[in-house]
Design brief:
This protein has about 120 residues and is α+β, with helices and mostly antiparallel strands. It has one domain. Helices cover about 30% and strands about 25% of the residues. The protein is built from three helices and six strands, in the order E-H-H-E-E-E-E-E-H. It has a six-stranded antiparallel β-sheet with strand order 1-2-3-4-5-6, covered by helices on one side. A hairpin with a 2-residue loop joins strand 2 and strand 3. Helix 1 runs antiparallel to helix 2.
């Protein structure tokens, strides 16, 4: 079972990731703020999320075993270039064409860019 997007552990994960960084310029606070943004939105109570190291996944699927027919928005933070990367895809087709449409943006553009992708989850 994946945790609801509103679960505080998602933010804690990236705070801990930031505190345990290996390089001085390895700044993960933008990812902390990004996840805080996602958790604060009206849609958060209806979605689930999970982390895979530097990747944060927001989905309509409540668990891995129930992913068939569900979609996902994958989010990454490139601390070296200070850019977010995000993409929408169907979970049962992770290598589909839609995954190639990666949106890159700076931190201040993140809320509007990610919200547009998250809204697609409701129409998949």
């Amino acid at each position: 079972m994946w945790a609801e997007l509103t679960h505080p552990r998602h933010v804690e994960f990236y705070r801990e990731f930031h505190e345990g960084r290996h390089e001085r310029d390895e700044d993960w606070m933008p990812m902390v703020r990004a996840v805080e943004h996602l958790r604060s939105q009206n849609y958060a109570a209806e979605l689930f999320a999970f982390t895979s190291l530097a990747h944060f996944q927001v989905t309509t699927a409540p668990s891995y075993s129930e992913q068939q027919g569900h979609a996902c928005v994958g989010i990454t933070w490139d601390f070296r270039n200070r850019l977010f990367g995000m993409a929408f895809w169907e979970l049962d087709r992770p290598n589909g064409d839609s995954q190639k449409d990666i949106i890159r943006c700076i931190e201040k553009e993140f809320p509007s860019a990610v919200d547009a992708l998250i809204l697609r989850l409701g129409h998949s």
